[in-house]
Structures are given as structure tokens and as C-alpha cells.
């Protein structure tokens, strides 16, 4: 028995040692976190980048790769993102991806402020001219010399700190230069061109970061046998990404206002005003993230008042013209008046077209559509009970003999002429009125039943 006991203990010890080695190996598995950012850079974007970096730090990742596709955005948010990258204890690689993506304006600054920059084929980087939005005449306003010089100095300092091309970085602003991956590699603006993340990991393996990683200095990347961990954007991230686009936010506000007005003109349904209120709030939240001029928003609401006045009063187009002019000026000033934007000018050019088109459509809608509805309602109200005779409605509350019916989208108190119950959902025809109560019979009743008493 003693002879068996010794080898058995030794076997148990070997098994425990092997299992602890496996646990240790599993615990030290190398991971690379991969996240995605799309859309305009806003104040919310800084929180999103920070959450990505926090997750990579908690997971003790070898690196964090952020795939970006952005036309740029807020200069203030961009600086917050770069500062968070500098404070990261994990190397942050900015990867302009997928093919066709751009890292324009503020996105270029973020790339130059990262530990490593990579680009996929058919992408671009650059075009960093700072702008101030729109002037009152609708032209895009370039930033004054003081602000322009600040951003030139800032982007040159980012390039210098990372050993990247300072001359090309300056031309991103002074000449609104934009580069392809091949041109960016040749100009020493980026370090890698890669078809996908796996290609990027292969090419970056063994490379040293272009700027120091906090608490670790310059880090030599080791991507041999790493596990890829994907960080998906949250539902809130996706919603904010859409509504913070200035074009989308502006459209949401206008559709929301239309929904509210349409709901008030068609009482009893409640759907248009409910949807309109939701869209209006979402549009305002989106503008809040992107930044806007409050005076422009006031003018937009003032233009709606002019449109409503046109529908309610016969001014022969005077209020419509006032509404169109006010809305165009308001929409343009909404994205001007002191805010600094580092965003592609093409984004604002598209926005200007959207503002003009929506304004013209609203003007036509209120001048003809809403005015016609209001005139029709007035005409029907003036004809008295004769206008209601013969109208067909649907029972929404059983007539026994009194109840409620719905005609022309409105609820009316009604009474069954024959005193017989009429069930919910049945169609009835108006044959008379007693005050504000409609006298009805079942649709399809005999002519004798339809005669007024």
C-alpha cells in the first residue's frame, strides 16, 4: 500500500501543476480590441472613444484598433479624443476603414494624434480647413486667421510629436490637401496600408508606436497569436450617430414641426402630433450634440408661424414669402454664428441644398395644402346641419340608443333614430341633428328610415 501511495501523490502533484499552467496560459492570452466609429464627430463622440479605450485597458489588450469613417466635426470634441488617446495605457491604432471611408478634417487630427495610423484601399485622409458655418447670405465662412493659425500649429505639433510629415500636415489646412493611402504612405503621414484587420495585425507586428504609451514609453507591438475582441457600438451610439448628423437633425426638426401642425389640424387621431413631438425632440438633441446657433432656431420656428398665418388668413402669399425667407435665413444661421467646425465643406454644401429644398416644399405645402384644408373646414362649418345630412360614419361606442361615432376623423355624439342598438364597428348614416347630437340610422336602411323628423 505504501509503494502505491508515493507514485499516486506524485501523479496528483503533476496534474495540479499542469492545470495551473493551463489556467495561467489562458489568463495571459493576448487580445486586440477592435471598435468602430462612423459619422460626424460631436461631444458625444468623445465619450464613445473614451469607453472604447476604457474597455481595452480593463481587458489588458495588446492594442485597440478603431476603424473610423468620418467627415470631421467639432474641434473641441476632437481635442478631447486626442487627449484621451495620449492618456491611454494601451496603444491606439486609428484605421481608416472600410474601403471608401474617409478621415477628413477632425478625423485627420485624431489619426495624427494616435500611436499608429493605417488606411484601407480607396480611402482618404486630410482636408482640414477650419470653417465657421454659414454667413447670412448662405456662403460658407472660413475661420479667421487667428483660429486658422491655431489649428495649423496644433496639427504640426501632432505630426512633430509622432515623427510624421509636418509639411504635409500643414498643407492639410493651408491647401485643404487630401491624400490616398499610397500618397499618405509616401508622404510619411501614415504607417500602414492594410486590406482588413488581419492584414493590419500582420503588418503592424513588431512595429514600434509613433508616440509613447502612458506609463510604458514607446511600445513594440506583438500581435503573434492574438485573439480579436470586437467592441460593438451600443444602441444609443447608433441613434446618436444618426441624429447628430446636421442634415438629419435639420430634417427631423422640420418633419416634427409638420407632424405637430398636421395633428392640430386633424384632431382626434393623435398619431401625427405624437410622432411629430418625438421627431422634433430627437432633432433638437442631435443639434445639441453637433452645436447650433439659437438665433437660427428661433427664426425657423418664426417661419412656421408665418406659414400657419398664411393658411388661416387670405394674405395672397405675403406670409408664405415671409416664411420662406425667414426659414432659409434661419436654417443657414442655425449652423453659423461663432461655432468652429472641422468638417468637410461638402457636408455643409449638401446641408445648404437640403435647407432650400425643404423650405420651398414647406412653403408650397402651407400655401396650397393646409390653406385648402382650412378653407374646406370653414365651408363645412358654415353650411350648418345640412352639410352633415347623408354623411357616413362608424360607431366607436355602441348606440343604445346614444353613443359615439366617428365622421371625417372627428368624434360626434350620436343617437339611433330607430332606438335599436347599433354595435361598434357598424357604419351609420346621418339623417338629422338635435343640437350637437347626430341622429343616425344603419347604413343601407330604407329611405323611409332616413327621413328627418
TrEMBL record:
CDD domains: Clp_protease_NfeD_1. Keywords: Membrane, Transmembrane, Transmembrane helix. InterPro entries: ClpP/crotonase-like_dom_sf, Membrane_assoc_protease, NA-bd_OB-fold, NfeD-like_C, NfeD1b_N, NfeD_membrane. It is found in: Membrane. It is a multi-pass membrane protein. Its main location: membrane. The chain crosses the membrane at residues 92-112, 247-265, 277-309, 316-338, 350-374. It holds the Pfam family NfeD. It comes from the Archaea. One of its GO terms (cellular component) is membrane. Residues 247-368 form the NfeD integral membrane domain. Residues 33-198 form the NfeD1b N-terminal domain. Residues 386-442 form the NfeD-like C-terminal domain. This is Nodulation protein NfeD. It comes from Thermococcus profundus. The lineage of its organism: Archaea, Methanobacteriati, Methanobacteriota, Thermococci, Thermococcales.
Amino acid at each position: 500500500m505504501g509503494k502505491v501511495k508515493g507514485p499516486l501523490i506524485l501523479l496528483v502533484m503533476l496534474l495540479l501543476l499542469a492545470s495551473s499552467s493551463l489556467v495561467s496560459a489562458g489568463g495571459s492570452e493576448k487580445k486586440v480590441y477592435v471598435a468602430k466609429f462612423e459619422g460626424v464627430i460631436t461631444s458625444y463622440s468623445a465619450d464613445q472613444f473614451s469607453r472604447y479605450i476604457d474597455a481595452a485597458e480593463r481587458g489588458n489588450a495588446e492594442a485597440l484598433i478603431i476603424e473610423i469613417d468620418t467627415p470631421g466635426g467639432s474641434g473641441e470634441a476632437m481635442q478631447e479624443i486626442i487627449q484621451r488617446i495620449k492618456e491611454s495605457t494601451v496603444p491606439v491604432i486609428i484605421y481608416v476603414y472600410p474601403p471608401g471611408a474617409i478621415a477628413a478634417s477632425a478625423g485627420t487630427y485624431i489619426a495624427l494624434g494616435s500611436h499608429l495610423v493605417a488606411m484601407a484601399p480607396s480611402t482618404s485622409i486630410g482636408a482640414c480647413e477650419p470653417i465657421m458655418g454659414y454667413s447670412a447670405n448662405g456662403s460658407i465662412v472660413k475661420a479667421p486667421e487667428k483660429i486658422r493659425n491655431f489649428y495649423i500649429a496644433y496639427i504640426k505639433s501632432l505630426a512633430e510629436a509622432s515623427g510624421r510629415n509636418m509639411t504635409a500636415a500643414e498643407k492639410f489646412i493651408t491647401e485643404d490637401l487630401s491624400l490616398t493611402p499610397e500618397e499618405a504612405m509616401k508622404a510619411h503621414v501614415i504607417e500602414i496600408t492594410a486590406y482588413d484587420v488581419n492584414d493590419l495585425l500582420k503588418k503592424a507586428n513588431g512595429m514600434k508606436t509613433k508616440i509613447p504609451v502612458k506609463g510604458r514609453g514607446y511600445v513594440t507591438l506583438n500581435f503573434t497569436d492574438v485573439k480579436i475582441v470586437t467592441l460593438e457600438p451600443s444602441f444609443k451610439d447608433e441613434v446618436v450617430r444618426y441624429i447628430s448628423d446636421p442634415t438629419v437633425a435639420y430634417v427631423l426638426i422640420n418633419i416634427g414641426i409638420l407632424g405637430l401642425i398636421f395633428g392640430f389640424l386633424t384632431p382626434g387621431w393623435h398619431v401625427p402630433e405624437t410622432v411629430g413631438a418625438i421627431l422634433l425632440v430627437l432633432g433638437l438633441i442631435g443639434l445639441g450634440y453637433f452645436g447650433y446657433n439659437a438665433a437660427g432656431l428661433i427664426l425657423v420656428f418664426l417661419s412656421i408661424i408665418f406659414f400657419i398665418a398664411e393658411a388661416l388668413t387670405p394674405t395672397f402669399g405675403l406670409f408664405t414669402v415671409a416664411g420662406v425667407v425667414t426659414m432659409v435665413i434661419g436654417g443657414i444661421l442655425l449652423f453659423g454664428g461663432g461655432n468652429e467646425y472641422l468638417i468637410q465643406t461638402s457636408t455643409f454644401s449638401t446641408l445648404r441644398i437640403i435647407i432650400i429644398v425643404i423650405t420651398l416644399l414647406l412653403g408650397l405645402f402651407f400655401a396650397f395644402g393646409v390653406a385648402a384644408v382650412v378653407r374646406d373646414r370653414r365651408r363645412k362649418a358654415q353650411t350648418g346641419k345640412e352639410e352633415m345630412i347623408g354623411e357616413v360614419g362608424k360607431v366607436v361606442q355602441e348606440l343604445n340608443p346614444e353613443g359615439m361615432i366617428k365622421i371625417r376623423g372627428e368624434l360626434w355624439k350620436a343617437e339611433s333614430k330607430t332606438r335599436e342598438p347599433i354595435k361598434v364597428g357598424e357604419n351609420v348614416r346621418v339623417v338629422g341633428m338635435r343640437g350637437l347630437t347626430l341622429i343616425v340610422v344603419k347604413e343601407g336602411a330604407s329611405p323611409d328610415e332616413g327621413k328627418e323628423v
